Amino acid sequence: MEKLLSYVSKINNHLLQYSSIDDALNSCIRDIGLEHNIDRCYILKNKNNNELLGLDYAYEWCNNGIKPYINHFGVNKSLNNAFLSINSILYKDKLRFGLGKDIDNKLLKKILEIRTVKSYFFLPIFSDNIFWGWIGLEDCKSERVWGEREIFVLQSITKSLGIRFSQNTAISKLERTIEKFNFFMSSSNQAMWEFDIETEKTNFSLNWYGILGYTNEEINNIPDFWTKIFSPDDKKQIRNDFRDFTAGKLDKFEGNTRIIHKDGHYISAKYSGLLKLNKKGIPKKVIGTYMDISELVEKEKQLSLSEAKFRFIAENTTDLICQHSKGGDLLYVSSLSNDIIGYDFEELINKCPWDFIHKRDLSNIKKYYHSIVKNQQIETITFRFRKFDGTYIWLETTTKVMLDSEKKIIGFQTSSRDITKRIRADKEMKAAFLKERKFNELKSNFVSIASHQFRTPLTVIYSNAELLEMKINSFQRDSNECKVIISRIKNEVERMTELMNNILVFGKQEAKKIEKVIQPIDLNEFIDTLTKTYFNKDGGAKIRVTKKGFKKVFFTDESLIVHILTNVINNAFKYSVGKPDPELIIIYLENNIEIQVIDYGLGVPKKDIPYLFTSFFRASNTNSIIGSGLGLVIVKQFTEFLNGTVELKTKENFGTTIKLTFPYEHQ
Amino acid sequence: MNTNKILFVDDEPNVRETIKELLVFKSYDVRTAANGQEALDILEYWMPDLIICDMVMPVMNGSELHENIKKNKYLSTIPFIFLSAKNEVELIRKCLQDGADDFLTKPFKFNELILVVTARLERFEKNKNAQNNLQSCKKKDFLN
Question: Where are the transmembrane segments (chain B) (predicted)?
């Protein structure tokens, strides 16, 4: 019994003594082999650590004169396969032993024959309830019977092996964790300390050297090291805080301070501590960290500096500077917003600027936004923005995307300026330019048409002069013929005079040289005088004048009205020769005065009607009647100049009615 | 004496009458029309030796009349002279390119018109004679 105990304790000793598992197992199988007086002892390891087994002939001890198989690949492989085929038994924590010749598994029997095994003993090893492998014992000399005690001992040894394996796993896990922890600690800018309240001793983690420049030994050799490294400004306060914290008077021990490097320079640090209590709730230790935040502090300083710079620029530029979220909402608006758009900058924070944009510009803004998101380039747009008072101003906005370190959009920065004046000036300039161009076209057309209009009477005059000359030279002086020729010349001179007069009047109106002299007139009397002076001559056609409604005083420019009416009445006479006399009707309406001039003459062909108020246009049926093509144009211009309107109704061969309407008062 | 026939087209009655009288004075047989359409109507039954035509006219203007005449194989050989108040170089160039024989601008000196008319008529006569000769030769060949 004593011998057995010593054997088991020897095995356990191997397992405890050796830090290397290989050394421990090799010693164990050697002692198992010698103790049981067998020829071979070996361990097969399950490599896979899961349901699928994968066996590895890992350790082997052989008696003197017995052939080892640890490096025999073929036999090992066959043995493995054979074990796999019987593993269903072993795997379930059942042992298997007996004589080699009695074995029922053919493969295993054959292998054991090769290995000259007379007796065998297989035992599974479990570690943390996971099948770890098994141990095999072989006797090549005798067919032995395995005793009960022997079996029991082997089972308990196998259990010890399992325990050793699980301990090994735990240690290696812990080692890995410590290794990881040390790695992280050494590469981090955070140092740890542990203060024992009873002994008042402090332990420091290794990376203090990196942070403070002291070696671990120096740290440990300087008494009260940790109290000496704070900046003099904070030292007292921190010591007081620490005392209160360990006494339970302060809930937290944390803050920012500056600690002094071995070189003498300061490092910005964040410190904090945690109280460790024992089971009775009495404070035992304080575990704390110091973090080097110099870089962070420096960055914060730079950031606040650049932010101050940005704000200085944003607040002092004449442009409206804004920052927007990724979705477009306003996050920052410079204080100039009040001057430019009438809103206080606070009112706009978190608002979407699209809500203020003129609906006609919205689709453009959306396109602009998508283009910026897509191209990530600075782009400029102009649009209308609704001010606080509801009016719109034109803004010219330049947008830049703000990106994070991974080049992802985090927002937008915009700079906007009020360009309403510029847009207005542009529009005015464009309008002025167009007007100028139109006027120039009109002028050049006018000159070209006017010169054409002059050529015809000149041709008639010159040709008739030539005709007259020929007749005189050839002594064909028929006085009647000569009279015709002379009357043609006279007619054409008249036509040219009319043309010239009209061109002068037209030119004046075009150049806005005509001034209105508004005065009250009695239209009834005025028309009577006009018709007597210019028309209704003895022996000729007469115009019949009718008056309707209650007479009212008419405020207008007399000379312009003369121009208008003589032109219209003249036309009525000119184009109705041989037809019933023309008529003139004055109608006093409530708010307006209406003058109708009606003739029963040629009328105007339908196709010509749209062009009647175009300079130099003459209806196609008026060739035999002298005219400049300017009369109606001037009538229309003057009437509108006096705030009146012209309407024309006409039918070819039935006559024409011209209706002029004016307000009584002239504003 | 063989009197040359001239068709004068102009919408202005005074111009029409004056030019007609001038040409008649020079012993031409003159007929007038007030626009292109009237001229085409006359050409259906009266064949002139020369046409003088205004450009800007109602109903059918000078260019349209010229185009119609050029398309007609019986009329296309008749000399065609424009007489217009229009004097833009581009227009004149285009009319001449389209086959007009001359382009005079109003106002004009009658002598100039007569010079142009005479020259065109002479050439027209020569061409006519040449063609007649050719035709009589063909007839002779045919008879022989």
Answer: none
pTM: 0.42
Mean pLDDT on A265-285: 83
Q: Please check whether residue A226 is in contact with residue A202, taking contact to mean a CB–CB distance below 8 angstroms.
A: yes
Tell me which chain A residues have a C-beta less than 8 angstroms from the C-beta of B25.
Answer: 467, 470-471, 474
The architecture CATH gives domain A188-298 = 2-Layer Sandwich (3.30)
Q: Which architecture, in CATH terms, is B5-143?
A: 3-Layer(aba) Sandwich (3.40)
- How far apart CA A340 and CA A335 sit, in angstroms, is 10
User: Which chain B residue has the Cα nearest residue A451?
Assistant: B85
d(CA A634, CA A620): 20
Residues of B in contact with A474 (CB under 8 A): 25
Q: Which CATH number applies to A425-506: 1.10.287, 3.40.50, 1.10.357, 2.60.450?
A: 1.10.287
Nearest chain B Cα to A467, which residue? B22
Measured between beta carbons, the chain B residues lying within 8 angstroms of A491 are: 14
User: What six digits make up the tokens of A437?
Assistant: 């161009």
Q: What is the ipTM of this complex?
A: 0.82
Collect all residues of chain A within an 8 Å Cβ-Cβ radius of residue B52.
Answer: none
CB contact under 8 A, A467 and B22: yes
For strands A645-651 and A655-663, give the pairing: antiparallel
DSSP, res A611: G
The 10 Å CB-count burial string (b at 16+, else e) for A598-628 is bbbbbbbbeebbeebeebbbbbbbbbeeebb
**Domain residue limits, chain B:** 5-143
Of B21, B34, B106, the CB nearest to A459: B106
Among A634, A627, A599, A594, smallest CA distance to A613 is for A634
Higher pLDDT, A318 or B121: B121
Domain A336-418 = CATH 2.10.109.10: no
Does domain A2-172 match CATH 3.30.450.40? yes
How close, in Å, is residue B110 to chain A by CA atoms? 7
B51 CA to chain A: closest CA distance, Å?
A: 18
CATH 3.30.565.10 fits A514-663, yes or no: yes
Lookup: tokens for A2: 């004593």
How far apart CA A284 and CA A600 sit, in angstroms, is 127
A42-46, A254-258, A385-389, range with greatest mean pLDDT? A385-389
Q: What is the DSSP letter of B4?
A: P
Which of B8, B14, B113 best tests the A interface by mutation, with the highest count of A CBs <10 A?
B14
- Report chain A residues touching chain B, CB-CB < 8 A: 452, 455-456, 458-464, 466-467, 470-471, 474, 485, 488, 491-492, 620, 623-624
B19 inside 8 A of chain A by CB = yes
Q: For the residues B108-122, what does the mean pLDDT come to?
A: 91
Instruction: List pLDDT tens digits, range A441-491.
Output: 766 766 777 777 788 888 989 999 998 888 888 877 788 888 888 888 888
